[in-house]
Amino acid sequence: MPRSVNAVASRARRKKILKQVKGQFGRRKNVWTVAKNAYEKGGQYAYRDRKTKKRNFRALWITRINAGTREYGMSYSVFMGKLHARNIELDRKVLADLALNNPTAFKAIVDLVK
Predict the structure, then answer these.
(1) Which structural domain range is residue 23 located in?
(2) In whole numbers, what is the pLDDT of the chain averaged over residues?
(3) How do residues 52-94 score in pLDDT, each as one tens digit?
(4) Which of 18, 10, 47 is nearest to 35 (CA)?
């Protein structure tokens, strides 16, 4: 009896990965072994950078809040300390957005904290 290899499923598996790497440069988009490696490495980068993205955004928010508070003669750490002492429950994302897009509301918060 001849060996059964299920070429339909093998081809479908390959097509699925080749579809995922469509648009990449060089042999990564059409050579099976190179595409498979590129796909796996891309998954590792995606997993790692989902964590890194959170770190980067927090750093960006802190930078924006610091720039906003320095205009009113206060540092970031002093501002956040006084904010928590006053039990004002605004997270860094919201504070950074206010500092960037709504300076009057941010100034009101800084005045409230002072």
Answers:
(1) 9-113
(2) 95
(3) 999 999 999 999 999 999 999 999 999 999 999 999 999 999 9
(4) 18
Q: 64-68, long-range: CB within 8 Å, 24+ apart, which pairs? A: 64/96, 64/99, 64/100, 65/92, 65/95, 65/96, 65/99, 67/99, 68/95, 68/96, 68/98, 68/99, 68/100, 68/103, 68/106, 68/110
User: Does residue 2 form part of some domain?
Assistant: no
Q: What is the pTM of this model?
A: 0.79
Q: Which of 87, 85, 83 is nearest to 108 (CA)?
A: 83
State which amino acid sits at residue 61: W
Report CA 66 to chain centroid distance, whole Å.
21
Average pLDDT over residues 39-49: 97
Residue 21, domain CATH:
1.10.1900.20
Total tally of structural domains belonging to the chain: 1
